[in-house]
Design a protein that fits this description.
This protein has 307 residues and is of the alpha+beta class. It has a domain of 145 residues: DNA methylase specificity domains (Adenine-n6-DNA-methyltransferase TaqI, Chain A, domain 2). The protein has ten helices and eleven strands. The strands form three sheets. Strands 2-10-7-8-4 form a five-stranded mixed β-sheet. Strands 5-3-9-6 form a four-stranded mixed β-sheet. It has a two-stranded antiparallel sheet with strand order 1-11. The longest helix is centred in the first third of the chain and has 39 residues.
Length: 307
């Protein structure tokens, strides 16, 4: 806190004495966050009483070592923040590129052919998945199976490609669902609607997904075209217990497509390269966060000494 301010009863303030560096205390409290969450009490608002912290014991190295530890962790935080900002910038640049390249507003060098407005149903066979019933019957599932069972959560935590699923189907479950071979483009149509993804494993999809079979254009271009309209589906989806899309609406939805498949591929390649760069940065960010956790665990407990 750099400025003077007042806090409500939901906050607690520490005034550090000469033997305690406030930045060291900040990181030490941060390292114990999960423990604080575990012992917090209350139904609507979880709280920890002042008496708990008054008797709390903080193991302290010398002031010089506290400052060195805090500086090392602060440097890591600075790296994390710079990566987060760079990733946000790359996402913004990608969104701009999608808006220009997927609408024909900006043409790539060497391409000048016409674009067409096409219905999705004329570009691929769109088929809805199927679900075995009742869905909670264990006979449909087999953790040793090689056939994945795609859940909405599997898609929301993945990027462009689906490489694993939480559950797998038994042979009986496969017969009662909709098999999708690896390399297929599928899209969620229930709850989290309009999220496209390309399968890298053999899977089955339930009725919360559709598959785009045998597309007559670059599959990767179609993927990015679907990504560009992902946020628009909510304007047309049917509401009930949760938002969903029907195949008729998807079939009727129109996108702009260059006639030249080479241009489709070139556009998709540019966007894919941007995604690869973003994924690389996100991987670096995740590793840096893990590094920070390891540093906090070792430096704040004295396992590793800096001085």
């Amino acid at each position: 806190m750099k400025d003077d301010m007042a806090v409500s009863q939901h906050f607690m303030a520490w005034k550090c004495g000469p033997s305690l560096d406030n930045h060291f205390l900040y990181y030490w409290l941060q390292s114990n966050k999960s423990e604080f969450e575990r012992i917090a009490m209350g139904n609507t608002i979880k709280t920890i009483g002042l008496p708990f912290f008054k008797q709390f014991v903080v193991p302290l190295p010398t002031k010089a070592e506290q400052e060195a530890i805090a500086e090392a962790l602060s440097d890591t935080d600075a790296l994390i923040e710079s990566l987060e900002q760079l990733i946000a910038k790359k996402h913004h640049l990608k969104q701009g590129a999608m808006q220009e390249l997927l609408t024909g507003k900006k043409r790539l060098q060497g391409f000048s052919g016409e674009w067409e407005v096409k219905r999705l149903g004329s570009l691929a066979g769109i088929t809805r998945g199927a679900s075995p019933r009742p869905i909670d019957n264990p006979k449909w599932f087999d953790e040793n199976s090689t056939i994945g069972w795609v859940r909405i959560s599997d898609v929301t935590k993945s990027g462009m490609f689906l490489r694993e699923t939480t559950q797998r189907l038994s042979p009986l479950g496969v017969k009662s669902s909709r098999p999708v071979s690896r390399g297929s483009l599928i899209m969620s149509i229930c709850a989290t609607i309009g999220r496209p993804i390309i399968t890298k494993i053999d899977t089955c999809i339930h009725d919360g997904f559709v598959v785009f079979d045998a597309p007559c254009l670059s599959q990767l271009f179609l993927y990015y075209a679907l990504k560009s309209i992902e946020g628009d589906w909510g304007k047309h989806g049917q509401t009930g217990s949760q938002m969903n899309l029907n195949t008729g609406l998807i079939n009727r939805t129109k996108i702009s497509v260059p006639k030249d498949e080479a241009e489709q591929t070139a556009i998709a390649t540019i966007l894919s390269d941007m995604d690869t760069e973003i994924t690389s940065l996100e991987t670096k960010l995740a590793k840096t966060r893990q590094l920070k956790q390891g540093m906090m665990h070792n430096l704040l407990t004295g396992r590793i000494r800096l001085i």
